């Protein structure tokens, strides 16, 4: 995991998120990560919105089919 995260960080495409209450690997503690620890998997939260916005920077919107 550390190698992949380090490569993403170098490419400026790292989107960190916390899903368990663990210490981040050395070298990654200074990067803000969206915390999903309190997310109930249903409600929108500010942290979930932050994660979605971070991901949206790298993902092109899908084209919708016509009516």
Give a count of the beta strands, DSSP E runs of length 2 or more.
Answer: 2
Q: What form results from the Cα inertia axes?
A: flat
Number of contiguous helices? 2
The strand order across the widest sheet is 1-2
User: How helix-rich are the residues, as a percent range?
Assistant: 25-40%
- Gap between N and C termini, in Å? 43 Å
Radius of gyration: 14 Å
Task: Give start-end ranges of low-pLDDT stretches.
Answer: none
Task: Describe the SSE topology.
Elements: H1 2-10, E1 17-18, E2 34-35, H2 46-56
Parallel strand pairs: 1-2
Can you walk me through this structure?
The chain is mainly α. It has one domain (about 1-55). It is about 30% helix and about 5% strand. The chain has 2 helices and 2 strands. It has a two-stranded parallel ribbon with strand order 1-2. The longest helix is centred in the C-terminal third of the chain and has 11 residues, at about 45-55. The protein starts with a helix and ends in an 11-residue tail after the last helix. The mean pLDDT is about 80.
Short summary:
This protein has 67 residues and is mainly alpha-helical. The protein has 2 helices and 2 strands. Strands 1-2 form a two-stranded parallel ribbon.
List the main descriptive attributes of the protein structure presented here.
67 residues, mainly alpha, two-stranded parallel ribbon, flat, 6% strand
